[in-house]
Design brief:
With 169 residues, the protein is α/β, with parallel strands linked by helices. The protein is 42% helix and 21% strand. Strands 1-4-5-2-3 form a 5-stranded mixed sheet. A 3-stranded parallel sheet has the order 6-8-7. The radius of gyration is 19 Å and the shape is elongated. The two termini are 36 Å apart.
Length: 169
């Protein structure tokens, strides 16, 4: 199984170590995720679970718990050189550039700093957006420029909130 570290760590109860399986050290793994993400890496967790050979078809519920964490993958996907210039040109022209991504908050903040987005230190997560009513969402969308761990639904809500405030999106 591969996926977002936050989701996968919650599905694991053990980790693979040099001597075999051992109890999961969740805090240490979360710290590793944060360290990789702070360097601008996209982080993916990988886990496994064994089943008897005579197991028939697998269902999603069969891999939602009891997994063994194998490790993390940190992928570097640097922005193209022209992105920095385009962001600077837009901002100089008075255009407010916003980044709405599914990436980890620390990854989003690092990339936002790398491309020169204003407000890169104020990253709003999809979980935070879920707690906001429409009026609070409009205010937060107006204030912040970087949104992370967003779903397609969050992206639509943000666009609608910005448009409700008279923004051209």
């Amino acid at each position: 199984v591969k996926g977002a570290p936050e989701r996968l760590l919650a599905m694991c109860d053990r980790q693979r170590g040099l001597a075999g399986e051992e109890p999961l050290d969740t805090g240490a793994w979360h710290a590793r995720v944060e360290a990789l993400a702070a360097e601008g890496m996209r982080v993916i967790a990988v886990a496994t679970r064994s089943f008897p050979h005579d197991t028939g078809a697998l269902a999603p519920g069969m891999v939602e718990a009891g997994l063994v964490l194998v490790g993390l993958l940190g992928l570097i996907d640097p922005p193209r050189e022209e992105v920095v210039a385009a962001v600077a040109e837009c901002q100089a022209a008075g255009i407010r550039v916003k980044m709405i991504t599914g990436d980890h908050a620390a990854t989003a903040g690092a990339i936002a700093r790398e491309v020169g987005l204003r407000g890169a230190g104020d990253v709003v997560t999809g979980a935070e957006l879920d707690r906001l009513d429409d009026a609070a969402l409009r205010a937060r969308a107006r204030q912040a420029d970087v949104f992370a761990r967003t779903s397609p639904e969050h992206k639509l809500r943000l666009v609608e909130a910005l448009q409700a405030e008279g923004g051209v999106v």
